[in-house]
Design a protein that fits this description.
The two termini are 54 Å apart. The chain has a 4-stranded antiparallel sheet, with no helix packed on it. With 95 residues, the protein is an alpha+beta fold. A hairpin with a 6-residue loop joins strand 3 and strand 4. It has a domain of 37 residues. The protein contains 1 helix and 4 strands; from the N terminus they run ββββα. InterPro entries: Regulatory_FmdB_Zinc_ribbon. This is Putative FmdB family regulatory protein.
């Protein structure tokens, strides 16, 4: 849902979340109790792609609903899995 910015006569600014079909033009200031009018605001645009939004949403969900796992992620390493028997690989530089 969109966030709308309001400002009262005492220059207090605050945000409220409303559906687009029921957004009021005025609200009550939570600081002073005075009438506050809706101010024009800029849209919240982002250059992130849909995959980035998926990661952000997954991180936000996991903060409140952590996934339960039964083992550590990834396959266990086999001893000697990094050793090759190809004689051409012996000529490669080692670091």
């Amino acid at each position: 849902m969109p966030t709308y910015t309001y400002r009262c006569d005492s220059s207090h600014r605050f945000d409220e979340v409303h559906t687009m079909s029921s957004v009021p033009d005025a609200s009550t200031c939570p600081d002073c109790g005075g009438a506050a009018l809706r101010r024009p605001g800029s849209p919240h645009l982002s250059a992130a792609g849909s995959s980035a939004y998926g990661l952000i949403d997954a991180a936000a969900r996991s903060a409140h609903e952590p996934a339960v796992v039964s083992s550590l992620p990834g396959a266990p390493r086999r001893p000697g899995a990094g050793i090759t028997r190809n004689p051409l690989h012996a000529k490669l530089p080692r670091h």
